[in-house]
Every structure is written in C-alpha cells, then in structure tokens.
Amino acid sequence: MFEKSFSFLQLIQENNNREWYHAHKKLYQEAKLEFDYVTELLINETGNFDKDIKGLIPKDCTYRIFRDVRFSNDKSPYKSNFGAYLCKGGKKSGFAGYYVHVQPGNSFIAGGVYLPPSQVLRAIREDIFEHTEEFKEIILSPAFTKHFNGIDANKLKTAPKGFPKDFTDIELLKYTSYTISKSRSDKQMSDGSIIDEILVAFKTMYSYNRFLNEAILKVL
Hints:
This protein is of the alpha+beta class. Helices cover about 45% and strands about 10% of the residues. A four-stranded antiparallel β-sheet has the order 1-2-3-4. Helix 3 crosses helix 9 (about 195-205), helix 5 (about 120-130) packs across helix 6 (about 130-140) and helix 5 (about 120-130) packs across helix 10 (about 205-215).
C-alpha cells in the first residue's frame, strides 16, 4: 500500500521544482489517485463506528500538493507528503478527527485537534477540568496506551488563565494542542496490513475525539 505515493514523494523531495513537476505530472496524478482511493476506504470504514465521518469524500479530507511559500524561508513549491484528515464537516471545520500522514522518513497516524483557536482551546480545557476522571479514563486505558504515548507535547509552562493553579491534574490543561500520534516507518507504511493498523488506531481514538468534539460543539 502507498507504493506510488512513496515513489512520487521520494522523487519530489529530490526534485522540488516546477520544471520537474510539470514534466512528471502523470506520476503525481497516479500517486494522488492511489492516496484518494485509500482515503475513501478509510472514510467508509471509519464511518462504521463514527457517524460524523459518513458522507465525506476524499476532497473533504486531503490537501493540495502546493505549498504556501509567502511567509516561509523555504521556497520549495511542493509538499513532500500526502495527508488525509477525517473529521466532522471536513478538514477545515475545526473539529477533532483522524489523520494519516505519508512522507518518506516521517509517516504517522494521528488524531485529536491541532492548535485550536483560543475559544475552542478554552472549551476543551473547561470540559477536561469538569470531567477529569472521564478524560483520564480514556487516555489511560490499556487500549489507548497500547497505541499512543499520551498527548503530544507543546505545553504552557504555567497554568492557563482562569484555572486554579493547585488543580491536581493541571498538567492536562496546559496543552496548546490536543493531538495524539504514533510514528510508522516506511516499511510499515508499505506493508499490506497498514490499512488494518490505521483503522485499529482510528477506532482506538474514537472516544478521545468524541470527548474533544463535545467540547468543541459548544463554541463552533
């Protein structure tokens, strides 16, 4: 799986310029077709246990190959990865969801919500503060910890404003993103069993995403 995707992405890493891309655009189209096929499969299967994913199409979840270089020192015109983000309302909705990232040397499976706006972040923190035991039960369950080593780092150094500094689980409120992830090697991503592994990871993070989305729904 992802054979054409990896092949193209490796080449675009080495030839990240418009001349090469336009001369080999067919390779991109074949890789994109493969990735869209996998994305559609993931949508259909994830929709079996998360109704919010039903009805999405690959275009709702995948990203353009073109980089926004306006504010970057790196002027390479193309991304060297494919990504699909499955969530309620599609990738731009702001809801927590399920993500797969394919990139030579840096592939991973992830979920949750990345750098949410301030009102969303506060709503998540408030729900964790008010339902701490429920949240901990999710992230400390054996099924969860088998796949994910807790919430990804990126935390405030002090307690967020509006929350008591002596709160026992204050560390759970310091995150600026509520993402979870597991890295996969190129070999693992190319294995025939990777789709099953992705789906098991997605199913494992369902309760986590549901908790976050119940909070997000209050402000979106």
